[in-house]
Amino acid sequence: MEKEYGRTWIWTAIDSTTRLIITFLIGDRTLEDAHSFLKDLISRMNEKPLFVSDELPHYENGLEEMFHTLIQPEPTGQRGRPKNPEKIVHEDLDYATVHKTRKNGCIVNVETKVVFGSESRIANRLESTPSNTVNTSFVERSNLNWRLWDAHLRRQSTTFAKSIRWLKAKFSLVVACYNFIRPHETLSRQSDRSFTPKTPAMAAELTDHPWSLAELLWFPSICQ
Amino acid sequence: MTALTNVFCPNKDCKDYGLRNQNNIGTRGMYGKDKTRTLLYCRTCGHRFAETKCTAFFGLHLPGETIQQIIHHAAEGVSVRGTARLLNLDKDTVNRVILRAGEHCALVLSNLLHSLQMTEVQLDELWTFVKKRKVLAKKNWKRSMGGHGSGRPLIAQPD
Asked: What pLDDT does A134 receive?
């Protein structure tokens, strides 16, 4: 039976260059949900990007499960059970984490750690993105967007979700509006400060114009 | 309404089921009380269907403009009862429209976001809360109520 009450977690993935919300999952903060989330995320991308997250160990575990090869060790020639296969993580996987140290609720120190991949390759990847360093600023900022635009996610109010079905529906609605309808300020503002409306979906080359609400609601879609 | 190029045949037995831009969709006139709704058909299988099929408007009797207003309010963080008061509707109507549109948006996102070229993906999780219901938490109560009602059973039912 699906748990339908109490604390719930929304897993989100954002691309820092296009600001596109690639996928999200509403569930618990468990390893099982982390695996489902990462599986869905990876199935939507052609190549392995640089993954950045906070220090939650579920991501490391999930990425290791997704991108590994099992290598059977050479037989030792001695008696006994053969050794179990070893998990070798793919060499082209890059994953870094951000560790924040808090004191009295305030962040006093931020450290980064490369979990998979090499530091030099991650630094090269970061050169082609808006991030100069390993950080989670973009996804943390998007969390504020959801708190502002989805009444169910507002803190300390009575508009909290009364059913998980509605929570999922309303969050999908807000994410779709963010991806396809709302022009993104940073993407839209040109170097000469002129404003040309540009949505995250346009930046990711999914559409060529900002959608209207009618366009989104009229777009036929079917469960595939 | 949407452009015909985006429309696909919703008939699961059709060989063009779910495929866009196949040049197989045409209009078959208008229908409804005031002849205001467009009827579409598939040239491949001959299946006729409403123009609202597979969209957020299918089966809803509210005017399209009101539905858009409800969704606009919902996407700007207005509460359900607030939306109902602003548009002079019932809160259950607002809830029904939001649910239909939200599930439609989930499908649109799922259909369009694939084969992406991403450079740096940041991952995080966001805490939220769904109302706790004591009735749901106690399985025995739920079973004895048969999924209906709001109170305790008056008599213990022998198994």
From this structure: 93
Which residue in B64, B107, B130 is closest to A5 by CB distance?
A: B130
Using an 8 Å CB-CB cutoff, list chain A residues near B137: 5
pTM of the entire predicted model: 0.87
Lowest mean pLDDT across A1-5, B70-74, B154-158: B154-158
Phi, psi of A182 (to 5 degrees): -75, 125
Contact B136 A5 (CB under 8 A): yes
Q: Quote the pLDDT of residue B5.
A: 81
Query: By the 8 A CB rule, do A121 and B120 touch?
Result: no
Angle between helices B91-112 and B64-75 (to 10 degrees): 80
- Which residues on neighbouring strands pair with residue A224, listed in sequence order? none
Instruction: Please count the other Cβ atoms lying within 10 Å of the Cβ belonging to residue B136.
Output: 14
pLDDT of residue B6: 83
pLDDT more than 70, % of chain B: 81
Structure tokens at A12: 């989100």
Other CB atoms within 10 Å distance of the CB of residue B47: 18
Type and span of the H or E element at A22: strand A21-27
Q: How far is B96 from chain A (nearest CA, A)?
A: 9
- CB–CB contact B55 A217 (8 Å): yes
Tell me the pLDDT band of A4, cut-offs 50, 70 and 90. low
